[in-house]
Design goal:
The structure holds 2 protein chains of 2 kinds. Chain A folds into 2 domains: 131 residues, Alpha Horseshoe (Serine Threonine Protein Phosphatase 5, Tetratricopeptide repeat), CATH 1.25.40.10; 128 residues, Dynein light chain 2a, cytoplasmic (Beta-Lactamase). In chain A, 55% of the residues lie in helices and 11% in strands. Chain A has 12 helices and 5 strands. Chain A has a 5-stranded antiparallel β-sheet with strand order 2-1-5-4-3, with helices on both faces. In chain A, helix 2 packs parallel to helix 4. Chain A starts with a helix and ends with a helix. The relative contact order of chain A is 0.08. The relative contact order of chain B is 0.21. Chain B has a 5-stranded antiparallel β-sheet, with helices on both faces. Chain B is α+β, with helices and mostly antiparallel strands. Chain B contains 3 helices and 5 strands; from the N terminus they run H-E-E-H-E-E-E-H. Chain B is 38% helix and 31% strand. Classes of the chains: A alpha+beta, B alpha+beta. At the A-B interface, helix 10, helix 11 and strand 3 of A face helix 2, strand 3 and strand 4 of B. Strand 3 of chain A pairs antiparallel with strand 3 of chain B.
C-alpha cells in the first residue's frame, strides 16, 4: 500500500489533472490520515467539480473527521450528480441516524436498497428500525438514561457496541443480528472469560497488559477492549463490531470512544 | 528434526519482530510444531492461543458472523497473532512494533500452503 501511495503521489505531481487523486485520497483515509486525504480530495475536486465519486470520497473523509453536516452536504451533492448513488444514500442515512432521525435514515436506506442489493443495507435497516421503535431523537437526548442505547450516537447504522461484565452479562449496548434479533446475551456468553484468558496469555508471554483484541469474520470485524475499571465492569469487555471493509484503525478509534463513554456512564451510575 | 511445517514456520519467524511461530491443532489446542525464539513453554502458548481463538469463533457464530479468520491480541509490549483453518491454527508471537500487516499477509500465505 505504501508503494502505491508513493506511485500515485508521483503520478499526481506529474499530472495534477489525473483522477489518481481518488485512490490516493482513499488509501490515505484508510491509513488513518483523514486530514491529508481531505487536502488531496479538495485539490482533486478543484479540477473535477462534477465528479460524483470525488464528492462521495470527500463526504466519507469528512465523516471520519466528525464533520457530519459537511459530509451530509457532500453526499447531497453526489445525489445531484448521480441520483441513484447508493453509497451517498447510505452515507446520508448514517448522518440522519446519528442526528437522531431514524425514520428518515430508514427511508434513505430503503432507497439505497432499491439501487444496491448489498446485504449490509438490510442489516442497517434492521438496526435503524429497532432504534426507531423507541422514538426519534431518544438516543441523542440522553444516551446515559438508556444503557441499551449508550453508544447509539457514536456508531453508524452498520456498527454495534456493547459492554459486558466479567461473566459475559450485558451491562450496556446491544447487538442486533441481520434478522433484527438482539443476540447480545448470546455473544456475551460466548465471550465470557476472554478477558481472563487474555490476561493469562499476556502474563505467560511477558508482553505486558492487554490493550485490544481484534478479529475478522466473514461478515464483520470485531474489536474487544478491557472495560474501564469499576466494581461493575472489572474483568469485563467493551465489544465493537463493524462491516468487514472497516479500516482497523477506525474500528479501534470507535472502540476507544465507546470505552470512554462506558467510563463516563459507570462514573454516573456509581454516583 | 524437520517436518512438513518447518519451512513455513522458519519463514514466519524470519519476519522482523517475530519471536515465535507455531502450528496448533484447531480442536484440542495442542502444539504440532513450533519455532520458538524465547524460553517459553510452547504447549502452554498453544493452549492459550487456541482457547482465545475458539472464544472468538464461538462469539462470531453466536452473532451469525460466519467463520473467523485473522485475530490479533495487542499488549503493551507485544502481540499475539492467530490465523485459523479447519484443522490447524497458525500462531505468531511478535514485538509490539512488528509490522502486523506483513505478518497477516505471510500467515495467510502460510495457511494456503498448508491447506
Amino acid at each position: 500500500m505504501a508503494d502505491e501511495v508513493h506511485q500515485w503521489s508521483d503520478e499526481l505531481a506529474r499530472d495534477p489533472s489525473s483522477l489518481v487523486f481518488l485512490p490516493l485520497a482513499e488509501a490515505l483515509r484508510r491509513q488513518g490520515q483523514p486530514a491529508i486525504a481531505q487536502k488531496v480530495a479538495l485539490r482533486g475536486l478543484q479540477r473535477h467539480p462534477h465528479n460524483a465519486e470525488a464528492h462521495d470520497l470527500l463526504a466519507r473523509i469528512l465523516a471520519d473527521l466528525g464533520d457530519l453536516q459537511g459530509a451530509f452536504d457532500e453526499w447531497d451533492m453526489v445525489l445531484r450528480l448521480s441520483p441513484t448513488h447508493a453509497g451517498a444514500l447510505k452515507g446520508m442515512a448514517f448522518i440522519r441516524f446519528q442526528q437522531g432521525y431514524p425514520e428518515e435514515a430508514e427511508q434513505l436506506l430503503v432507497q439505497a436498497q432499491s439501487h444496491d442489493d448489498d446485504e449490509t443495507i438490510a442489516s442497517a435497516i434492521a438496526t435503524v428500525r429497532k432504534s426507531g421503535a423507541l422514538g426519534p431523537g431518544m438516543v441523542l437526548i440522553d444516551p446515559f438514561s438508556q444503557p441499551q442505547h449508550l453508544y447509539g450516537d457514536l456508531l453508524s447504522p452498520e456498527q454495534a457496541a456493547m459492554c459486558l461484565d466479567k461473566d459475559g452479562l450485558v451491562l450496556a449496548g446491544a447487538y442486533y443480528a441481520g434478522d433484527g434479533q438482539d443476540v447480545a446475551q448470546e455473544i456475551g456468553a460466548a465471550l465470557s472469560g476472554v478477558s481472563d484468558e487474555a490476561v493469562r496469555a499476556t502474563r505467560h508471554l511477558d508482553i505486558g497488559a492487554w490493550r485490544s483484541i481484534v478479529f475478522e469474520t466473514e461478515a464483520a470485524v470485531v474489536a474487544l477492549m478491557p472495560a474501564p475499571a469499576s466494581a461493575a465492569s472489572e474483568g469485563g469487555l467493551v465489544v465493537v463490531a463493524a462491516v468487514p471493509d472497516t479500516p482497523l484503525g477506525l474500528l479501534r478509534r470507535v472502540a476507544e470512544r465507546c470505552t470512554t463513554r462506558t467510563a463516563d456512564w459507570l462514573g454516573r451510575v456509581a454516583g | 528434526m524437520s517436518t512438513q511445517f518447518t519451512a513455513v514456520l522458519d519463514a514466519l519467524t524470519r519476519l522482523r519482530g517475530v519471536r515465535a511461530s507455531m502450528v496448533v491443532d484447531a480442536v484440542d489446542g495442542i502444539a504440532i510444531d513450533s519455532n520458538l525464539q524465547f524460553g517459553q513453554d510452547g504447549n502452554r502458548v498453544a493452549a492459550l492461543a487456541g482457547s482465545l481463538y475458539r472464544k472468538a469463533c464461538q462469539s462470531a457464530q453466536a452473532a451469525g458472523l460466519g467463520g473467523t479468520g485473522f485475530m490479533q491480541l495487542e499488549a503493551d509490549a507485544g502481540r499475539l497473532c492467530i490465523l485459523g483453518g479447519d484443522t490447524l491454527v497458525l500462531v505468531v508471537v511478535a514485538e509490539r512494533d512488528a509490522n502486523v500487516g506483513l505478518i497477516r499477509m505471510e500467515m495467510r500465505r502460510a495457511a494456503q500452503s498448508l491447506a
